[in-house]
């Protein structure tokens, strides 16, 4: 799937992804994946439904869904490069993704965010009902080296 709008291309084609750019952003700028190794980023892309935003053949945004394409989807690694924020790209990306054929009819769509609640609430996300029923294992700073 691919659409163009205002000079931006939104696509689910993995062959367009610029893995080095995604790795740079996640490892250097994100709060959730600082220092993530390149091979981990590559494996995460290989095993996810991925979406990119491009302008003049430069990747300016990214998101991926961890999904079985039947019952569950976890949205993660969503970002827009700083120079392209404030243009409505996050909303357009969410609209593009939420109607993707592989994400239709799931029982649960989930994500975690520190600061983008208002964006995701526009697309139906809300605090989880009965969070006491959910469990997880969280490894804090898994990519940090001993020097950091």
Automatic annotation (TrEMBL):
Instruction: Give the protein's recorded name.
Output: GNAT family N-acetyltransferase
User: What's an example of a GO molecular-function annotation for this chain?
Assistant: acyltransferase activity, transferring groups other than amino-acyl groups
Q: Which domain of life is it from?
A: Bacteria
Q: Which residues form the signal peptide?
A: none
Can the keyword Ribosomal protein be found in this entry's annotation? no
CDD domains hit by this protein: NAT_SF
Q: What is the lineage of its organism?
A: Bacteria, Pseudomonadati, Bacteroidota, Sphingobacteriia, Sphingobacteriales
Which controlled-vocabulary keywords does the entry list? Transferase
* Pfam families with a match to the protein in the record: Acetyltransf_7 (PF13508)
- SUPFAM superfamilies, alphabetically? Acyl-CoA N-acyltransferases (Nat)
InterPro entries recorded for this chain?
Answer: Acetyltransferase_Butenolide (IPR053144), Acyl_CoA_acyltransferase (IPR016181), GNAT_dom (IPR000182)
Give all residue intervals belonging to the N-acetyltransferase domain: 8-148
């Amino acid at each position: 799937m691919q659409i163009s709008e205002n000079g931006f291309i939104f696509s689910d084609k993995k062959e367009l992804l610029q893995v080095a750019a995604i790795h740079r952003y996640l490892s250097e700028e994100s709060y959730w994946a600082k220092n993530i190794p390149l091979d981990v980023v590559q494996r995460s892309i290989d095993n996810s439904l991925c979406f990119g935003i491009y302008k003049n053949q430069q990747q300016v945004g990214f998101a991926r869904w961890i999904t079985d394409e039947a019952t569950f989807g976890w949205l993660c690694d969503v970002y827009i490069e700083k120079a392209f924020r404030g243009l409505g790209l996050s909303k357009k990306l969410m609209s593009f993704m939420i109607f993707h054929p592989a994400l239709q009819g799931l029982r649960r769509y989930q994500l975690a965010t520190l600061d983008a609640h208002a964006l995701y609430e526009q697309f139906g996300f809300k605090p989880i009902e009965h969070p006491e029923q959910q469990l997880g294992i969280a490894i804090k700073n898994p990519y940090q080296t001993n020097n950091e």
